[in-house]
Amino acid sequence: MACFRSIGSLTSLTHSPRNVSRSSGIVLTSCSVHPITRSTFTGSPISIPRVQQPSQKPTRPRNLLPITSMVKPTLQFIQGTDEMTIPDVKLTRSRDGSNGMALFSFDQPSVFDSSGEVGEITGLYMIDEEGVIQSTDVNARFVNGKPEGIVAKHVMRTPKEWDRFMRFMERYSDQNGLQFVKKQ
User: Fold this and answer.
1) Name one Pfam family in it (predicted).
2) Taking a C-beta distance cutoff of 8 angstroms, is the pair 34, 12 a contact?
3) 8 A C-beta contact, residue 19 and residue 2
């Protein structure tokens, strides 16, 4: 025999829950009532079929386009502080395409103006919508004891790393007006 009980009245029942509806507060259980509880109900029994939920895919109105979060491609020496100086970038790649290297040369980078205030240079961070590419091979050039520039090297050891770097550079160059010039 199936019966409906509210959650508040389940304390006097011996039951094994089969279907719980959290939103309505109703529990469908298979239950047996203790012998001391008698019902005066004389109606006819009913059978309630199980309802199958149709599998529906969430639909989106056709006139709305998906929202894509775009991150401005940027370079950072100190996380959270964008580098304003546009570098010269030299690329080399092995003949078989298995590895490569990018050499970034920054003349008078803006990080020298603020490095004492916001923290230490911890690497070169290349940030775009896909994530962060990090290189820790960063060296400063000094002339007469004053910082002149920064040279950062990023080594790519697999074709996958090369492709990821090139996607970043394409976005960064579009944003900052850089052009690719092939060596002759």
Assistant:
1) Psb28
2) yes
3) no
Instruction: Give percent of the chain with pLDDT exceeding 90.
Output: 45
Output Rg (C-alpha) for the chain, integer angstroms: 33
State how far the Cα of 60 lies from the Cα of 57, in Å rounded to an integer: 10
pLDDT tens digits for 41-91?
566 666 767 766 666 665 555 555 554 557 899 999 999 899 999 999 999
Within the chain, strands assigned E span 2-6, 13-21, 26-33, 74-78, 81-82, 88-93, 100-107, 124-128, 131-135, 137-143, 146-156
Cα 136-102-85 angle, rounded to 5 deg: 75
Structure tokens at 43: 């109606």
Half-sphere exposure of 26 (CA within 13 A, CB side): 4
The backbone region for 168, taken as left when phi is positive above 0, alpha when psi lies in -120 to 50, beta otherwise, is alpha
Buried b (16+ CB within 10 A) or exposed e, 154-172: bebeeeeebebbbebbebb
List the domain boundaries for the chain.
Answer: 2-33, 74-176
Q: Which CATH superfamily is domain 74-176 in?
A: Photosystem II Psb28 (2.40.30.220)
Residues forming beta bridges with residue 146, ordered by sequence position: 143
The angle at the Cα of 123, spanning 128 to 144, to the nearest 5 degrees, equals 125
